Amino acid sequence: MKNPLLFFLIFISILSEGRTIRVGPTHEIKQIKPALSLSSQGDTIIVEAGLYQEGNIVINQSIVFLGVGMPIIDGEKIYEVLSIKANNVVVSGFTIQHSGIATMDDPGGIKVYYSNHVTVSDNYLYDNFFGVYMLCCKNCLIKNNKIVALGKEEQMIGNGIHCWKSDSMLIIANNISGHRDGIYFEFVTHSVIWRNISTYNIRYGLHFMFSNDDSYFTNLFRGNGAGVAVMFTSRVIMINNTFEENWGDAAYGLLLKEISDSYIYGNHFVKNTSGIYMEGTNRIYISMNVLQSNGWGMKIQASCMDNTITNNNFVSNTFDISTNGSLVLNTFNENYWDKYEGYDLNRDQTGDIPYHPLSLFSVIIEKNPPAMLLYRSSMVMLLDKSEKVLPSLTPDNFIDHKPRMHALPL
Amino acid sequence: MNRIIKFILLDIVKNKVVLLYTILLAAFSWSAFGLEDNSTKGILTLLNIILLTVPLVAILFATIYIYNSAEFIELLLGQPIKRSKIWCALFLSLCFSLLFAFLIGAGIPILIYAPNDVGLMMLILGSFITVIFVSIAFLSAIATRDKAKGIGISMMLWLYFALLFDGLILFLTFQFSEYPIEKMMIGVSMLSPIDMARIMILLKLDVSAMMGYTGAVFKEFFGTVLGTIVSIAILFLWMWIPFFWSLFKFKHKDL
Q1: Across the strands, what pairs with B198?
Q2: What is the pTM of this model?
């Protein structure tokens, strides 16, 4: 009993006088389905190591379903592996693999239908169409799962953790790779995504749509096809996440589209083609982030309004900022820009002359992408330098009035 | 011919400018790699230095040297030696000395700090650019007898290739921004060896993802075997055409 949670659950189940049914090659009951039909509310089913190929397994009652020694439940590439259609179910300690592929019913390794208080923890999900699929659920916990798929095309693979029309979900410490989207939220509210690692998924590491009042903390998103997308959402809190190595023409560290009243604090954006891409975002507070070694640190389209970008470090990006218009309705203040060349005579740690983070070349590129051909050309560098001294083409209100002289210790 | 090359090489070594050029390049390169925290950034810093100074030194030094050896050439013409041999010997020895300076000055730090395909590409392209600009210098030196005019032409050509050409491209992209000009741009970029070298190196680096659709089109061309062969061939043309033109002129010139 290495896992205290398991122990605790078993203890509780004994207290509540539920029966314990053991399944395994050495026991009387050799398969899972007969055990399920024998069980009733509050029972515990313990499955021992082995390979179980029983088609679609459906859990209809509130039971604790435990695997010992990671028993393998196999969907034979035809069935949905485990369907949960009851409240208060616990599924823990299984290897669940090879679910069927069907774009009509979206079979998952574990799919939870219209249930509350379901826990899915410590499982290994391998090569499933969808990993964990939550359909209209409430108060569920998805924790410590390792979810791996070998997707090659977007159409042929589902999402790692897919939540649809759910509320109060906790998604903690999962490791997801090779799916379409690592974590997918649509119409999910009041949920927390914490300490997950989502890497090398085909599309997004994390995909938010119409999901208000969610938070995500301390996650790592690396090398995903298009980075992380947060769209059509209000009141999202993003703290202490790392977005790195999302390289590609349409790859973004963090893509924000139609977001409002959100908070981006203490994140690291490293080595992305675009660190943060903002379109139609309003009233966002971006602070204490590190934007480092990106192609574009931040792309703020002119459709963004009332955003505050303050106390961030912009370090060794090719372009710190780029925008597509001359209208600037956002505030930049007290950021550190490593390209700042001003001075600080009164020693208050902020530069005495304001900084224009928008370079002429980034404006040219935004208007005319083929001009990227001249990237790193001496001519362009000359133009940039002269524009810095006398801004004429770049919007003159795109300005940081109090640029920091030294990087913030982030 | 070998003896002529030997004479000229000895003369160039005595001149000490090439030695200074070697030291300058070495100082640039070592500091570029030393100041930046990774070799990719060092390469990028060095790229600009190489694309500006190497052509400048090559074209100016070669032009001035040719004018200064006018008497030596006339002396040689008095001997029973073919005109083409004299001209070729002059070309080869200038190329040798400048290439040697480049490979010692920039080559050693590049091979130490970036011993990969990008570094190698840089060395090859740097060498190409050296030879190309010596070749252009020959053409501008033979174009006129007037020394000031000849050096002026050389400087204008350098200014054109290093700066003005990019301005022209920028202008063109804006004029034709409504059209799909990416493929055409591949052709246009071949009109300047400096631009070609810059694009070929940038595409080797990670930054190519930033270059968006334009970069993808370029990568599709320069990344393939055919594209590489074509671009190397174009660089060879850039080496040979100005020189052969000057050779033709030299042969038929009334000195």
Answers
A1: none
A2: 0.83
CB contact under 8 A, B216 and A249: yes
Q: How far is CA B91 from the centre of its chain?
A: 14
Q: What is the pLDDT of residues A272-293, one digit of tens each?
A: 889 999 999 999 999 999 999 8
Would you say residue A407 lies in a domain? Answer: no
Give the up-direction half-sphere exposure of residue B216: CA atoms within 13 A in the CB hemisphere: 6
Q: What is the pLDDT of residues B21-68, one digit of tens each?
A: 999 999 999 998 888 777 777 888 888 888 999 999 999 999 999 999
ipTM: 0.78
pLDDT in tens, A61-117: 999 999 999 999 999 999 999 999 999 999 999 999 999 998 888 899 999 999 999
Which long-range CB contacts under 8 A does A360-364 form with residues at least 24 apart?
A360/A384, A360/A387, A360/A393, A360/A394, A361/A319, A362/A296, A362/A319, A362/A321, A362/A322, A363/A322, A363/A323, A363/A393, A363/A394, A364/B170
pLDDT recorded at residue B194: 93
- What domain range includes position B84? 2-251
Give the chain A residue nearest B196 (alpha carbons).
Answer: A373
At residue A336, the pLDDT reads 94
Average pLDDT over residues A310-338: 90
Cβ-based contacts of A247 with chain B (< 8 Å): 206, 209
Specify the number of domains making up chain A: 1
Task: Give the number of domains in chain B.
Answer: 1
- The answer to whether residue A304 is domain-embedded is yes
Q: Is the pLDDT of residue B154 over 90?
A: yes
Q: Percent of chain B at pLDDT above 70?
A: 97
Asked if B166 and A249 come within 8 Å (Cβ–Cβ), the reply is no
The answer as to whether A409 is a domain residue is no
Using CB atoms, which residue from A248, A373, A377 is nearest to B214?
A: A373
Query: Chain A closest CA to B216's CA: distance in Å?
Result: 9
The answer to whether B214 contacts A273, with C-beta atoms less than 8 Å apart, is no
For A365-384, b/e burial (b = at least 16 CB within 10 A) is bbebbbbbbbbbbbbbeebe
User: Mean pLDDT of all residues in chain B?
Assistant: 89
Give pLDDT, residue A11. 62
Contacts with B, A 19-58, CB within 8 Å: none
CATH number of the CATH domain containing A16: 2.160.20
